[in-house]
Design goal:
The complex is a heterotrimer of chains A (357), B (257) and C (307). Chain A is built from 13 helices and six strands. Chain A is mainly alpha-helical. Chain A has a domain at 30-259. Residues 350-357 of chain A have low confidence and may be disordered. Chain B is an alpha/beta fold and 257 residues long. Chain B has a six-stranded mixed sheet, with helices on both faces. In chain B, strands 2-1-4-5 form a four-stranded antiparallel sheet, with helices on one face. In chain B, a hairpin with a 2-residue loop joins β1 (8-19) and β2. Chain C is mostly helical. Chain C has helices at 4-32, 39-59, 64-91, 100-121, 146-168, 170-180, 182-187, 192-218, 225-240, 245-269, 282-293, and strands spanning 126-127, 136-139, 142-145, 220-221. The chains are: A mainly alpha (357), B alpha/beta (257), C mainly alpha (307). At the A-C interface, α5, α10 and α12 of A face α4, α7, α9 and α11 of C.
């Protein structure tokens, strides 16, 4: 862990740091929208890393992960907006949101403990939908979530008087709201990555992997699989909850639309397509799958005009079509993901031609 | 060597198990004494692995129970069996295929170590020390079973013989009082079986009690202090090898009447 | 009690549709262990193709019954071709890939199909041409229509046909063998590729029939209609025990009935706290409850691990 002081690593880290610091300014050249897209890429990286614990490490196919994001987001929205008139500070809400998401993780995970792999998937999917539908309908008789309209005017992140929304002057440089959020997110991302790496290479991380590989053998050597599975759900959920809180603050507005099944599925795709269980790969997957649809959104119209002289096909459908194709193609040619861990690459390379009839 | 050799470690009392109409175990009672190598043999389908699975908590017995170290074994809680000090290998080898050999043994240390999520995330000195100790012990165990040069290979890529040894190393990592081996010599040739015999002797010398299910009668008779024979789920005889080998019922069970 | 029979009838109809779709999921899962996320979209395409074919033919003056038949036939054939292509192009290359890879591919194909449909048929809701006369019946205070009767009968007939195929033909036996143990089945001379292709093709054909039924029953169609339907049908398949044909049929019908009863009574049950817009989650609640008591589904095999 502490080996990164070799000259080559130091140079690599320096370069990456420079790139990371400069990125929001480069992005802003295309407009603030691109900085926002960047921010979402990082948020999704959080989510993908959280899901990676559940799916990649522990092998629990969770298709309802977005529910924890929703819990975190609504917690912030309810505690820092005009809706209930509460305006808690960040250092209170984030841990509280994480804790609530954590509890949700345990509650939603408990019924799944005895289920085989794919049964687990459909139950977690069901939970995700249940949470969304409740968010959508808890506006009568008591208005908790404000239903489909969502909650608006949510407080941004504030450290004392310094607010992350709106433009500020720092050290003579003008930073827009999204740009400020970017740095906050990067800082959090670094923390999240460190925590993930440590978890993966720990006694708990190994136990999770053992459960994934062979639950019966894991029990036989003394692993309390029930508790560890719940722990995986809880940890994964906490990450989701934290990401949800920041999302709420950043966007200023939440509604049940942002927490649909397709979101859970997208995050899973990020984990698998990136390189399941492999932290750099998962981050890559998150960044690519967030940015690709946006790039397509901007490119699809002009490209068609350039080739055909006009826009033949509705850009919205075409871009999603290409996105779907991209998923299929990547999985076809890189089944272990774009950046799998060295062991997995070995595993897929060593496989002899098996029962190919 | 310091504990009282010869005292009862495991007691099975009238253990019964049936699957639908099939009576896999009929009131099997036996005792295993500390420090011995105890063999469990019988024709195919006699109930040996079923007995194993009941003992290690994978199956819940329909009758009777077990006492281990003087206290009853709770059924349906396999991880507790390991906590109490019973470790096992599997007839069909159940390793963690996509983890390295070293990681497989390291995860065997799980039940005797304590680092939790908080320690892992914060990387406390206590956690780091424990990690280092786990790693070292795992390397030592790989040496013990003679597969140290395969430490970084994925378990699923090891040869069959090495996989068997790895499984034993992993079981030993849990510091068991009773090590249960389910047909460890299956599929081995004479040389490999001899090497296995030496390993088991070594484990016994180092103080672990061993329960051995085996088909290789020669291995069992040469290695074990006492042998129990099961046939059709019932205990036929429990005695020293010399007596068991000559018992008429045993000969009939294996050869047919 | 007054609406009880009515809701049972409605549930039976909806459930028959779920059952047909659920069979597609369960056959593929039983043989390959794959959740074919794109199956719902195949059903949707079945509906939309029928709209185009039957609608065009009717406008061209063909008698409705003939146009309906033509629409159904073209729809079934297109979906069979679609199912076959899906397997051949997207899933077959991934037979030896890690378990989650084909799942992502399925999701990708689902997105592709939805958006293709949107491109071809547009975003708007479309009206399904009326293919059956609207005749009403009444029994013990409950109303039902000819369409409902036909749906239940056709579903039952189709399912009977499927059972015959699976239990009385060589192909069916090959399929059953493959779902138990593909390696050994292959060694016994079963052509695994053909069996898997058959599972997809048959499942898609059933899906097309279901699609036509959905269109006829609800009279509208939309490029996104496959999503929720597919989800619920898959839930039904799991409820019955995934991989088990009888389970899929029973699960589908059961789910339909429970949803209908729930929608009818939920207001009363919860004292007005929960309204019928919670209907969509009944499926999941039922599933979760069942799985808590029967972790492998109603008819699922207990994979008793012989350690």
């Amino acid at each position: 862990m502490m080996k990164w002081l070799s000259p080559r690593s130091a140079l690599g880290i320096a370069l990456i740091t420079v790139a990371l610091v400069a990125l929001p300014f480069v992005a802003a050249m295309g407009g603030q929208a691109w900085v926002r897209i960047l921010n979402f890429a990082i948020l999704y990286a959080f989510l993908a890393l959280g899901l990676n614990i559940v799916v990649g490490l522990a092998g629990l196919l969770d298709l309802g992960y977005i529910a924890f994001y929703a819990v975190g987001a609504y917690t912030w929205a309810l505690l820092a907006s005009p809706h209930f008139g509460l305006h808690w500070p960040i250092w209170a809400i984030l841990p509280f949101g994480a804790a609530l998401a954590c509890i949700a993780g345990v509650v939603l995970g408990s019924p799944t403990l005895k289920l085989r792999g794919d049964y687990l998937a459909i139950v977690t999917l069901g939970f995700g939908e249940i949470v969304r539908i409740f968010m959508n309908n808890l506006n009568a008789p008591v208005n908790i979530t404000n239903g489909a309209q969502g909650i608006t005017l949510i407080d941004p992140v504030k450290f004392g008087d310094f607010s992350f929304s709106g433009t500020s002057q720092i050290l003579g440089i003008s930073l827009s709201g999204p740009q400020k959020y970017y740095y906050l997110l990067v800082a959090l991302a670094i923390l999240v990555i460190i925590v993930n790496v440590r978890l993966q290479n720990s006694r708990i991380g190994r136990a999770w992997q053992a459960i994934r590989e062979d639950e019966i053998a894991a029990k036989a050597i003394g692993i309390n699989t029930r508790n560890l599975k719940l722990l995986a759900f809880a940890m994964g959920a906490s990450f989701g909850g934290i990401a949800g809180g920041i999302f709420s603050a950043m966007q200023g507005f939440v509604s049940p639309e942002s927490f649909s099944l397709i979101e859970s599925v997208m995050i899973l795709a990020m984990v698998v397509l990136g390189g399941m269980g492999h932290i750099p790969g998962v981050i890559l997957g998150a960044v690519l799958l967030t940015i690709l649809p946006e790039v397509l959104r901007y490119a699809v119209g002009p490209v068609q005009t350039a080739i055909f002289g006009k826009v033949l096909v509705d850009p919205e459908s075409l871009r999603m079509l290409i996105f779907g194709l991209a998923l299929v193609l990547v999985m076809r040619f890189k089944p272990a993901g774009l950046w799998p861990s060295p062991e997995r690459k070995r595993e897929l390379a060593v496989k002899p031609q098996e029962v190919a009839p | 060597m310091s504990k009282a050799m010869g005292e009862v470690l495991l007691e099975a009392n009238a253990v019964a198990k049936h699957f639908g109409g099939v009576k896999a175990l009929r009131d099997v009672s036996l005792t295993i004494r500390r420090g011995e190598v105890y063999g469990l043999i019988g024709p195919n389908g006699a109930g040996k692995t079923t007995f194993f699975n009941c003992m290690t908590g994978l199956y819940v017995p329909d009758g009777g129970g077990f006492m281990f170290n003087g206290a009853p074994l709770i059924a349906d809680a396999p991880h507790q069996a390991a906590e109490r000090g019973i470790a096992r290998t599997f007839q069909n080898i159940r390793l963690f295929g996509n983890m390295t050999a070293l990681e497989n043994v390291m995860v065997g240390r799980h039940v005797r170590t304590r680092a939790g999520v908080v320690g892992a995330m914060l990387h406390t000195p206590a956690t780091r020390n424990e990690e280092a100790a786990i790693r070292q012990r795992a390397i030592d165990l790989l040496h013990y079973v003679r597969i140290e040069d395969r430490a970084e290979d994925l378990a699923k890529n090891l040869s069959y013989g090495d996989q068997r040894r790895l499984e034993i190393a992993r079981a030993l990592a849990t510091e068991p009082s009773l090590l249960c081996l389910d047909e460890p010599a299956a599929g081995m040739n004479a040389t490999e079986t001899e090497a296995l015999r030496e390993l088991i002797e070594g484990i016994r010398r180092d103080g672990t009690t061993i329960l051995l299910i085996e088909h290789d009668v020669k291995l069992v008779m040469g290695l074990c202090d006492r042998v129990a024979v099961l046939d059709y789920g019932a205990l036929v005889i429990e005695d020293v090898p010399a007596v068991v080998q000559k018992d008429q019922r045993v000969i009939e069970a294996y050869l047919g009447a | 009690m007054d609406i009880f029979l009515q809701q049972i009838i409605n549930g039976l109809v909806q459930g028959s549709i779920y059952a047909l779709v659920a069979l597609g999921y369960t056959m593929v899962y039983g043989i390959m262990g794959l959740i074919n996320f794109a199956h719902g979209e195949v059903v949707m395409i079945g509906t939309l193709v029928t709209i185009t074919v039957a609608g065009t033919l009717i406008k061209a003056g063909m008698p409705v019954a003939l146009a309906a038949l033509a629409g159904l036939t073209v729809s079934v054939l297109s979906c069979m071709a679609l199912g076959w292509s899906l397997e051949r192009i997207a899933y077959r290359p991934l037979r030896n890939a890690p378990r989650l890879t084909p799942l992502i591919t399925a999701i990708g194909m689902s997105i592709v199909l939805q958006n293709l449909a949107m491109i071809v048929w547009g975003r708007n809701y479309m009206t399904f041409p009326p293919l059956l006369p609207k005749i009403n019946f009444e029994f013990a205070g409950a109303h039902f229509t000819l369409i409902q009767v036909i749906i239940v009968l056709v579903s039952a007939a189709t399912m009977a046909g499927l059972l015959y195929l699976i239990y009385r033909t060589k192909l069916g036996m090959a399929m059953r063998a493959t779902s138990q143990n593909p390696a050994v089945a292959s060694l016994m001379g079963v052509n695994i590729n053909r069996v898997i292709a058959a599972a997809f093709v048959i499942g898609s054909a059933l899906g097309a029939v279901a699609g036509v039924m959905v269109g006829t029953y609800y009279e509208i169609a939309h490029y996104q209609m496959g999503f929720m339907l597919g989800l619920k049908a898959f839930t039904a398949a799991v409820l019955g025990g995934i991989g088990n044909l009888a389970g899929a049929m029973l699960g589908g019908v059961l789910l339909g009935i429970i949803e209908a009863l729930g929608a009818g009574y939920i207001g009363d049950l919860t004292g007005g706290f929960l309204g019928s817009h919670y209907q969509d989650i009944f499926a999941f609640i039922v599933l979760i409850v069942v799985l808590m008591f029967k972790p492998s589904g109603l008819f699922g095999e207990k994979t008793g691990d012989r350690a």
